[in-house]
Amino acid sequence: MKILFITSTRLGDGVLSTGALSFFIRKYPAAEITVACGPLVAGIFEQAPGVKRVIALQKQPYALHWRKLWLETVGTRWDIVIDLRNSLMSRIIPAKKRYIWNRQDERKHKVEQIAAVIGASPPPDPVLWFNNDTLKKAQALVPAGAPVLAVGPAANWPAKTWPAENFIELIGRLTAAESILPQARVAVFAAPGEEETAYKVLNAIPAERRIDVIAKASPPVAAAALQRCQLYIGNDSGLMHCAAAAGVPTLGLFGPSWPHLYRPWGEHCAFVSTPENFGQLISYPGYNPRTAPCLMGSLTGTAAYAAAVQLWKKVSSA
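^ thats the sequence. predicted structure below, dont judge the formating
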C-alpha cells in the first residue's frame, strides 16, 4: 500500500497534523508513506515509522512547487492521498481514495478539523517520533540533573510576543524556593532569528541554572530536548505545539490569535490569554500584522503564574 500525505509548510500546523499521519500509520502498518511538506517541517516527519520519503517543498513563484510535487508523484498509483492543503494537485494524480481538506467548522480546534477530514473519532493526538541520534543530541542540550523549566519567549511576529521582562518575572516566581519548581534549571528555546528576545531572558537567569537552546537545534531535536523538561511556557508558536506533542505539560500564552483554534492540544496542556480577544486587539485604526507592536501587554504576570501553578497541580495529581 502506498500513501501520500500532504501537509503544511509551517511548523505549528505541521505538528498538529501528525496525529492524522499517526492514525494512518496505525491503521496500515505495512504502508509505504510519502510526506510532502515545507522544509522546516521535514525533519519532524522523517523519523515517523513507515515514512519512506519526505518531499520538502520550497515555495516558488507562480505555485511552481505544486508542479514539482506533481512531477514527483504522478508516476505512482497511490492507494490513499491525504491532502491537508486542499491543492488541485491531489485531485489530478491517480489514487484509489482521497481525503482532501475542505471548509471546516471554525469553531473547533485545528486538530478536530483535521480529524473531520480523515473521518477519525476521537481526534488523534499530535505525536512526535525521535530516532536515537535525535535523542542523543537532545540529551547533550538538556543534560540530566535538576528539574527544568523550559520557556519559549519568542514568536513569529512581535504582536504575539509577551515582553521579555514578563518572562523574567514569571521565571523568578516559578523557581522561587516556595514555588512549584524551586531552584529549577531554566532552558530558553528559540529559533534562528529570535536570538535578541531570547537572550534577554536567558541572561537574566543565574548562570549556574541556564540552559541555552537558542538557535542551536533543528525542530525535531528541539522537540526531543523539550521532552526532557518538566514544564514548558511560551507564546503561541510552533515550538509550543512541539512541546505539547512531545508530552510536556505546556502552558500557551495567547493574545492576537484564537485559543479555540490553536491552544496547545492535550489534557496535559492549558492556555492563558489577554483579557481582550484577537478581534478586539487588532481593531484599532491602521492595524497591520507586519508592523503591529506587541499586543500581549495586558496579559499580567500574575495571571500567567496562576495558570502555570494550576496546570502543574493538575498534571502532578493525574
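The mean pLDDT is 96.
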